[in-house]
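Closing statement on the coenzyme A sub-project.
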Amino acid sequence: MSLVGALPFLKPRLSPSVSPGRQRRHTLPASEFRPLNTQDAISVFEIEKEAFISVSGDCPLHLDEVRHFLTLCPELSMGWFEEGRLVAFIIGSQWDQDRLTLDALTLHKPKGSTVHIHVLAVHRTFRQQGKGPILMWRYLQYLRCLPYVRRAVLMCEDFLVPFYQKSGFKVQGRCSITVASLTFTEMQYPVRGHALMRRNSEAIGFPQNVLLLEEQTQRLESVLLLEEQTQRLESVLLLEEPIQRSESALLLEEQTQRTEPEPADV
Ligand SMILES: CC(C)(COP(=O)(O)OP(=O)(O)OC[C@H]1O[C@@H](n2cnc3c(N)ncnc32)[C@H](O)[C@@H]1OP(=O)(O)O)[C@@H](O)C(=O)NCCC(=O)NCCS
């Protein structure tokens, strides 16, 4: 990791030896949402340090855990970058039980249909601008594109319950996990109407839709097979035609010869 990468909130300075006329212009997107990767781990942890460690001495994910989840399931993370700098992020992993247990803090269960949101945090200088709720909204919309996801869950301190309720989360009850003297409320959000299935799902229902699709595919395949067989038959007939013709010509010749009157003796 370069020094610039390790200090994500400092603007990279241009080398004075490069003349302005020869400087390459890199245009970083003003605003970009993308999944995080392990190279973003330090920037993530910088935000976490300020947001949590400086306040309570601990944070939801330590650096090795951030790397762990960004290696195992980067697709369940989302970063908001402004001009290339991370300003807010969410890190999630899959979970396979109804309620969160201690294991959920460190494990990713690839067969689970629940996304456990470990952490949402906004960089200090970008808070109180509505970025947290916007990122959460985009993340929840994105989850609708993942057909295996049925719901999202999180645990939060009680004072944040109204914040997550505004994003559509509902209280599930007290969380069994405690960290030192901290207790948490468990909340969940049902991920409904997956984007890829939305078109007919309301009227037909997804399983029927899949069956219909399969049925249609099978029908199409059998039509194609029939066409292929017909074509093959036609080409065989076309090939056989000259043979048949010559055979019949021979037969005709033979018959003609037989029926032709014998030349009269002179
Ligand atoms: C909590 C956090 C994600 C909110 O993001 P944000 O972009 O700063 O959100 P905003 O301040 O723009 O607030 C958006 C809305 O949430 C509400 N809100 C924000 N922080 C809140 C809090 N601590 N408690 C209750 N409501 C809160 C605001 O009142 C606002 O409501 P409104 O739209 O009705 O006015 C952000 O402050 C943060 O990163 N904090 C540190 C890390 C943290 O605590 N993360 C959550 C636990 S994992």
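Residues 196-256 form one domain. With this model delivered, the sub-project is considered complete and its resources will be redirected to Aim 3.
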